[in-house]
Design goal:
Layout lengths: L4 E8 L4 E9 L2 E10 L15 H18 L7 E5 L1 H5 L3 H12 L4 E2 L2 H13 L8 E7 L4 E7 L2 E8 L3 H8 L7 H15 L3 H4 L6 E5 H13 L7 E2 H14 L18 H15 L3 E4 L4 H13 L4 H12 L4 H22 L7 H10 L11 H11 L7 H12 L13 H16 L12 E5 L2 E5 L2 H6 L1 H16 L3 E4 L9
Parallel strand pairs: 1-4, 4-5, 6-9, 9-11, 13-14
Antiparallel strand pairs: 1-2, 2-3, 6-7, 7-8, 10-11, 12-13
Length: 498
């Protein structure tokens, strides 16, 4: 039996920030505590696409409260994900360090399809077992996710840039409800949905499921006002439409189940859901409580038990791009050896971000499937832009940058922290020493980080026996010098110069 322990998930949504703390017993997740703060983050985006100061202040205050609750928890037991608003905000890079400082934990900005995958995992764990294929729809503050899956496996995932906050602000300013505004909002949503209708319409599933705030709010309203029973229905949605238009303003809409925090964003959420019903052929939708934060918790449990989806994705990429498995293993093994030497003198945890280096080593040659010329650029482009289930946007970007830097000039990498330069050096040397693509003894290279850069020492005998690698190491030192960094070579190189 696995000893019970506590984990936590934080969902930084575009409407609400949510914290869920749970106890894990034998791979089952049992909720312990929950916090919610209606930050209305999507509303903080100004006309230029930047988060305004008031929105940032609200967000930081909420994160500080969450941080107090999470204080003392091991970092590996907490996962924080950010969604649509931080994906699109132009100043998210400036805001994230402040947000992480307030919370006390790193924040992952996840891609739309990764968000959809996690939503499905959360929904699937809250639903009765069944063999039917399901459509799961999650209308968030800034985006809407769609998933078709069966049991615990998602088959298709998609994310569209439309949400209850953004649509309420755009089409219903001041909360005014008119027939024209509702029509415009629904047509805009239906236009967005046209891109996915072919793969997500009623032909591909037998049951429709709604998750998160918009679906739950609509379900409560229909149920508690006698407009529908057991979820959402076409007839119930039409009755709610009539009531909204009759009220004329969101503040005049008096309905059981309409909470104060949902009132301002109800019109946008209703319009999107109405469009979903019309375009995807939904007649009835069941509501479930499981959503993104639940999926994050179960995904976190999987990572702790060596069922990390990121490893599955890396394996699939190696297969898809016909990677030389023996070569990637050689490079990954050497890169880890070199990195552990360097971090010993950097005084950081040797396992810190080691996976970033190993994933880069295993995938650095995927661009060869496109062209040998500049293959490192092709590899980096794929890793930056492909859908990689399990990876956050930051993780993809860091792996891609490391792969880009394993070959060629170093100036293209910009300014990096010392530990990140250590990973670059480790991967470059591993590739350089594996050029023969054959299994050989580990080269007797000793690496260290120092105040001015890095140093490399190797025996004289080995240099004599490996003149090609010797020359390549001299060229490598020159590359680092041109980029403004020092890679100091041991005195032995003076005897075997170019």
């Amino acid at each position: 039996m696995t000893p019970p322990h506590t984990i936590a998930a934080v969902d930084l949504g575009s409407n609400s920030f949510r914290l869920q703390v749970a106890r894990v017993v034998d791979d089952q997740v049992y909720p312990l505590d929950a916090l919610k703060d209606t930050v209305r983050f999507a509303a903080a985006l100004d006309a230029q696409g930047n988060l305004d100061s008031k929105g940032q202040t609200r967000a930081l205050a909420a994160l500080a409260r969450f941080g107090e609750r999470l204080r003392g928890m091991p970092p590996e037991h907490v996962r924080v994900v950010a969604t649509s608003t931080l994906r699109v905000a132009k100043n998210s890079a400036e805001f994230l360090p402040r947000a992480e400082a307030a919370l006390g934990f790193p924040i992952e900005v996840i891609a739309g399809r990764e968000e959809a995958r996690l939503i499905y995992i959360g929904a699937a764990h809250s639903l009765p077992a069944g063999r039917e294929k399901r459509l799961v729809v999650d209308i968030g503050g800034g985006s809407t996710e769609f998933i078709v899956g069966q049991q615990f496996k998602p088959f298709k995932t998609e994310s569209l840039l439309m949400g209850c906050v953004s649509y309420s602000l755009k089409f219903f300013p001041g909360g005014k409800l008119t027939k024209q505004a509702l029509r415009d909002a629904e047509l805009a949503a239906r236009s967005e949905l046209q891109a996915i209708v072919h793969e997500f319409n009623h032909v591909h599933w037998q049951q429709a499921i709604g998750t998160s705030g918009t679906a739950r709010s609509l379900g409560d309203i229909l149920e508690l006002n006698g407009l529908s029973s057991g979820g959402l229905s076409v007839a119930g949605m039409e009755k709610l439409r009539d009531l909204m238009l009759k009220a004329g303003h969101i503040d005049a809409l008096q309905l059981n189940g309409l909470r104060a925090d949902r009132r301002p964003v109800l019109p946008g959420g209703f319009a999107i859901m109405s469009a979903v019903f019309a375009e995807l052929g939904v007649e009835k939708m069941t509501i479930t409580l499981g959503a993104l934060r639940d999926g994050v918790l179960y995904d976190l449990v999987g990572r702790q038990h060596q069922r990390d989806l990121r490893e599955v994705t890396v394996t699939q990429f190696k297969r898809r791009y016909h990677v030389d498995l023996a070569q990637q293993q050689r490079v990954a093994k050497l890169a880890e050896i070199f990195y552990r030497q360097l971090v010993a003198s950097l005084e950081v945890d040797p396992d810190t971000d080691l996976n970033i280096l190993l994933w880069a080593a295993r995938l650095h040659e995927i661009g060869l499937s496109i062209s040998h010329s500049s293959y490192h650029k092709h590899s980096a482009y794929i890793l930056q832009h492909a859908d990689m289930p399990g990876f956050s946007s930051q993780e993809q970007a860091r792996v891609a940058l490391l792969v880009l830097g394993h070959k060629g000039g170093l100036k293209k990498l910009g300014n990096l922290a010392k530990d990140r330069w250590a990973r670059v050096l480790s991967l470059r040397l591993a590739v350089l020493c594996s050029r023969s693509r054959t299994d050989r003894e580990t080269p007797p290279i000793n690496l260290a980080a120092n105040r001015n850069g890095f140093s490399l020492a190797v025996t004289n005998d080995w240099l004599q026996a490996n003149p090609l690698t010797h020359t390549a190491l001299l060229q490598e030192a020159e590359e680092w010098r041109e980029a403004g960094h020092l890679l100091a070579l041991s005195p032995n190189f003076q005897h075997w110069g170019l």
